[in-house]
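Intended use. Records like the one below are meant for learning the mapping from a protein sequence to its folded structure. Do not use them to infer anything beyond what is encoded.
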Amino acid sequence: MRASLYLLLCLLFASCHSGVSSDYAYVSGKIENGYADGDSIIVTFTVPNPIMNERTTYQTQVVNGEEFSFTIPVVCPVYAILVSSGCHGTILLEPGKEIELEIVPDSSGVQQIQMIRGSQLSKQEESDLNEVSMALAEMMMSDANVSVSDMNSISPEAWADSTLIRMNKDLVVLTDDEKLPIDLKQSYYHCCKLFFYLPELFFKYEAHAKLNYLRKNGQQDPDGAKFVAPQLNPSYYSFLKHFNFKEPVTLHQDAYAKALKMLLTKEALGILPIGDMPVGEWVKDTQSKLSDLLGFKEGLFYDLLAANAYEAQMANDLQPLSDKQQENIRAYFSNQAIVDILMGENEKAKAWDVRGMAEKPEVPKEQLLEAIFAPHAGKVIVVDFWATWCGPCVEAMYLFKDAKKELVKKDVVFIYFVDSSSSIDRCNKIANEIGGLHYFLTTDEWNYLSYQIDELNIYTPTYLLFDKNGKLVEKKFRFPGVSEMQQKIEALL
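Structure written out for the chain above:
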């Protein structure tokens, strides 16, 4: 269910209808009736961000009968979610365009969004999208662990080709669907490719190769100690041209920024750290390495990749922009929306406070788990993989808070790993309220621990239970409830 909801939001945020330009969307509206005069109402827009791996929220407080307005940076037309007391809608934001709406009660007194200028998805379209997203999510999750019988018998490039065939075959269920309008169907097609197939299959060749090896040789080498993944060459990444990174339809996918950040970490591509390099020089070098693989040399993609390189520095390394980097950004980007987003993130980075987080051992990622566990030898350890944007993760923490207090008295250790897509400020707030040992992981550390513990991936929330001997005895991909979780932990004491 979580995957289907994510896919639905991904699509709603990804439906670009026209060419790309740099501008802002201007939203104005008015709330009429349905509330007592003088009552305050919160109006919220949630918009995907092609630079940060999260959605950006714009919020204002309005008194009944008064007007409200938003100025929202957008790179291409995009569907955003509007939420207000008693109603929600999916509104199309377009660069340079003005959107005007009213929130008014219908004949039954239920608040509704009425568009004066602009457009939104109908309730029927939202319902159809939800139905298709659930079917596709089921198919993808069952597809995640499928692999060829012997990956060692074919080259990485051949495996990528066979995976492309499988992807296109899977997505026929979407392209043949008769309920969705053509433009939304096209958007969802790209959403599925970018949300699932790229990060979970193509970008995880080594993990799939290891899983394939363990399936074939598990009895002889149960821990995969003898496994050596084939060395990937740049040619392996030729599949990238099938993911349409240049097209407007992909730019505002929820998963777009994550895909760019993963691309930046692929050693075989040889992409340089951006550091204090002039942006144009970095882009030119990156174009020389990627253009043949992507199928294009020019376009907004390369600017967004550079912006994501800066954002990754701030999010992963917790390192604000240097004065030189800020100068380079302002000198290079003509797209003011990109400049504003990066400078806004830099202000947050300068204010980051990690006092609520545990001090992470200064060891290579290969030794991180062992170093974190070392002080707790002989104790039951519960590990919680979570993210600040993961509602079920945060809800479970607070639900289990009282039970955890009693278990801590019995020498149970609670360790929390949060990923770099999360808000530092919110991490600190939750860590201070929940207690336990909270570690902020870089993307590399998160990915390595995912492979180390589970050959393919760690989803949020994921819960791991280790017995007193340090052996992993239980793994849950969702919170099982307070009673069941407590029973499972107490059984290890």
